[in-house]
Design goal:
Blueprint lengths: L1 H18 L2 H5 L1 H37 L6 H25 L14
Length: about 110
């Protein structure tokens, strides 16, 4: 799952660069296609970045726990993150479920 998320984040960053390129912006249909793909990845990337930050914060809190003065604060943060990280993992799993290709179609034909 993490490798797929890394790939999605990499693609998102590529798209961000492409949609900022004046040459791509001049080609309206291509730019619109890239913007649509960019928008479809935005929620996943935002949640993945939140997940990575929580994991990093947990590691930092673990290191701070060895300091007597910061131990209580670090343990409180670790307890909070122990609950948050699995919740973020579940949200990411849901976000990675492939979308139905018919979702973008009109209901009324």
């Amino acid at each position: 799952m993490l490798q797929k998320l890394e790939d999605v984040e990499k693609r998102y960053d590529e798209l961000t660069a492409q949609i900022s390129d004046p040459e791509v912006i001049a080609r309206t249909s291509e730019w619109q296609k890239l913007m649509k793909e960019h928008a479809s990845l935005e929620d996943i990337v935002a949640k993945y970045r939140e997940y990575k930050k929580a994991k990093n914060d947990f590691e930092e809190a673990k290191q701070m726990a060895s300091d007597k003065e910061l131990k209580e604060l670090a343990e409180a943060e670790m307890d909070e993150l122990r609950e948050k990280i699995p919740a973020l993992e579940e949200e990411l799993k849901i976000l990675l479920i492939p979308k139905d290709p018919d979702d973008d179609k009109n209901i009324i034909c």
